[in-house]
Amino acid sequence: MEKDGGKGAVVTKDVLLYGSSTERLTAARHANGIDVWIITNQKNSNIFKAYLLTCMDLPSTPVTSVTGGVLNEYYDVDSMNGMMKVSPDCSQLCETISMLYPGNFFQLFDINNATGVL
What we know:
Oligomer: single chain
Shape: globular
Number of strands: 7
């Protein structure tokens, strides 16, 4: 925060977390009330990765959870859209997908916001 007259500066940017992910991405407040979990879904899988973002670091090793269905394993991936949203109390995560056929779909998961596990 010492650079640019106390406004701070970007020290690292454009760092790829991992290459095989979907556009579904969300954030959840950590149980400590300070840190944040960055949660994403691996492409064509039911693997979720949660990265703990702190004021000091974004570790390259995520907490990995394998749960739910594979939302896009049998369909044209380019014809689907989806999103993830965390509940206000950070206890649940909803993942949606919208596609032409067979239709829209969602999954609801419990989150342990102390460990990042779904």
